[in-house]
Amino acid sequence: MKKTDKKSDVGDLVRAAKAGDGESYEALLREYGGMIGAAISSFSSSIVSADPEAGAAFSEEDLKQEAGIAFLRAIRTYDPESKPGVTFGLYAKICVRNAMISLFRKYRTRKMRLKRAGGRRGIAEASVQSAEGDVDPADLFERASDLLSSFEAAVFSAYLKGAKPCETAVAFGVSEKSVYNALYRAKAKVRSLSENR
After folding, report:
1. How far apart are CA 152 and CA 154, in angstroms?
2. Most confident among 63-77, 143-157, 181-195 (mean pLDDT)
3. What is the per-residue pLDDT for 8?
4. 81 found inside a domain
5. Are residues 35 and 90 in the same domain?
6. Which pLDDT score, from 0 to 100, does residue 82 have?
7. What does the DSSP assignment read for 154-178?
8. Domain range enclosing 185
9. Which residues in 100-125 are b (16+ Cβ under 10 Å) and which e?
10. Number of domains within the chain
């Protein structure tokens, strides 16, 4: 296959995936899976060298979810006419890399906030206050969202609003199992903070 044929094929796949074609999305995921895996691996090694404690903060599943969301966002927002000469592969790579950087920055901000506050605070205190009726659920979720990856926060928010996992899966373009896994991780993180009060 010529390079121009591959570019037009990728363009066709992006347009079809943007329109909701699952097979085209899967084909793009197969095509760029190596790039996504390399971005996750590079991010993992970079964060451990920058902050040894950060390695424990990010599970491989968290990173895969973040990269997957960024890749889906790249498909939905890619517009070759607005940036001529920028291929989808380059655009997707930048989106995934930026998502990883944002995740690390969010972690560092949370870590600094906890350090300034003198330790673990937030959701554990809010859980106690909520039991006493002093905090509304919106405030509780806002504090919890600092602990969660963006995907976990979105899934947890949908859960709190009463969305079924199958509806959430369709809305995010992921499998129902991914939604259940993210919900499980979100609940576990909130519960562990409440228990370690």
Report:
1. 5
2. 63-77
3. 57
4. yes
5. yes
6. 82
7. HHHHHHHTT--HHHHHHHHTS-HHH
8. 120-197
9. beebbeebeeeeeeeeeeeeeebbbb
10. 2
